[in-house]
Design goal:
196 residues; alpha/beta; Rossmann fold; DNA polymerase, domain 1; 2 domains; 5-stranded parallel beta sheet; 8 helices; 43% helix
Length: 196
Amino acid sequence: MLLPLPDGDFQAYLFDCDGTITDSMPLHYRAWLGALAEYECEFPEELFYAWGGRLVTDIIADLNEQQGLSMPVAGVAERREALFQEGFPGMRAVPEVLEHIHDAHERLPFAVVSGSTRESVTASLTAVGLLDRFPVLVCAEDYAKPKPDPEPYLTGARLLGVDPARCLVFEDTELGVQAAEAAGMAAVRVPPPWQR
């Protein structure tokens, strides 16, 4: 079943990656738990979803501060990414979003706008066989201010050469929707796994 889209003459689709194109949030959470376990750091699932869309390094820094820990940010991030990629064989695309990708492919330009690294986004899209659909990738290293700032989505629109007001964003997190709206774009909220 297609997700209902808002009315508008959209000239480009911009997609978040994790939890939007790829049904990867459960894999991400297991990877987080594995990477944090050796430091006895707690990361409740509710907080994990509430912080969806944030940079990995910011999450680790905030967990350190909240729990009085001194986890090495780069080391934990690297371990989390390795554990995440180990789960790729079972990862699938979100069916409702995949239908829109198939429906609009070659009719509209696409971009991925993610808070994850280029390495992670490329690996995720490759795992679900969709990397070739996205000529433009805007990843964590491509902007200074992460979501909910509009910079990531404005960067995507600029790289596609499309007026932000003519872009439709597909997002699974509140931070992402806020970023899209701040960029002057319409947004479609992709429901979490338990609501699909």
